[in-house]
Amino acid sequence: MDRFYIITNNEKDPGLEFTEKLVAYLKSRGGTCPVWQAQRREDGSWHYTDPEKIPADTQCIIVLGGDGTLLQAARDVVHRGIPLLGINLGTLGFLAEVNKSSVYTSLDRLFSDDFEVEERMMLSGTVYREEQVLGRGIALNDIVLGRNGHLRVIRFKNYVNNVFLNSYDADGIILSTPTGSTGYSMSAGGPVVSPGASLTIMTPVAPHTMNTRSIVFPPEDILTVEIGEGRHRSVEEALASFDGDAEIPMRTGDRIVISKASVRTRILKLNHLSFVEVLRQKMRNS
């Protein structure tokens, strides 16, 4: 492997000083490595990285920043099918496994083709107002529904394969992939799942009931969450958030339909550590 594409985060690498060192090293080994500086834009088919700018012969996309930067890149470039390698410029992450101290030995392993590729399930969500599509998106970590505006709970009505499951008042609901199970879902009391699994986790955020727990669904199930009425039949405002970034406004009566995405993120794995070993290290360092 010697044809790379670098996506870098200027906020994590001011002045792109580390990025330039990385480019110089890759070129010294005979590699090619165009650089794209991730920048947020509000409209269009991509938010941070233009997938059409990635050369057709690219073998690996190196993402400099952290787990958040890698999540942004994954949503934009997943349809290209190119594996991603995350290099963490901050604290230890679950997705960006390489840090500054191990970066050059890790790059050497890429040139030697000493790596594995993991495929990660993603979620697809489409927001409807009656039969009108308000927006859609994909997520590697999670799709989160929460309030928009005043600090009060929202009534959520949940369906599985168009069959009513339950309803409750809560601050929000997290629909998570196995990859996202170690993120917000875990903080809200959800289970930790090996990222190689294929399933969807529904976890309420601060539910106002004593008997509400996370529920795990098989990948073929289609989940629908409808925003219910507020007190005195008032209209509630909510947001559907994809990987904590892209947002679609919702209100009472709107619904989001969530299913397993048709695409999967490909992650390069270099350290040969099992998920259990990574989890143990993460928990020890937290």
List keywords for this structure.
286 residues; alpha+beta; six-stranded antiparallel β-sheet; 17 strands; elongated
Structural write-up:
- The protein has 286 residues and is an alpha+beta fold.
- It has 5 helices and 17 strands.
- It has helices spanning 17-28, 67-77, 103-111, 184-187, 275-285; strands spanning 4-8, 35-37, 60-65, 84-88, 98-99, 116-129, 132-139, 142-147, 154-160, 163-170, 172-176, 200-205, 215-217, 223-227, 237-242, 246-251, 255-269.
- 39% of the residues are buried.
- The mean pLDDT is 91.
List the secondary-structure elements in sequence, H or E: EHEEHEEHEEEEEEHEEEEEEH
- Biggest beta-sheet profile: 6 strands, antiparallel
Number of strands: 17
Report the helical percentage.
10-25%
Sequence-ordered SSE layout with sheet pairings:
Blueprint: E1 4-8, H1 17-28, E2 35-37, E3 60-65, H2 67-77, E4 84-88, E5 98-99, H3 103-111, E6 116-129, E7 132-139, E8 142-147, E9 154-160, E10 163-170, E11 172-176, H4 184-187, E12 200-205, E13 215-217, E14 223-227, E15 237-242, E16 246-251, E17 255-269, H5 275-285
Parallel strand pairs: 1-2, 1-3, 3-4, 4-5
Antiparallel strand pairs: 6-7, 6-17, 8-11, 8-15, 9-10, 9-14, 11-12, 12-13, 14-17, 15-16
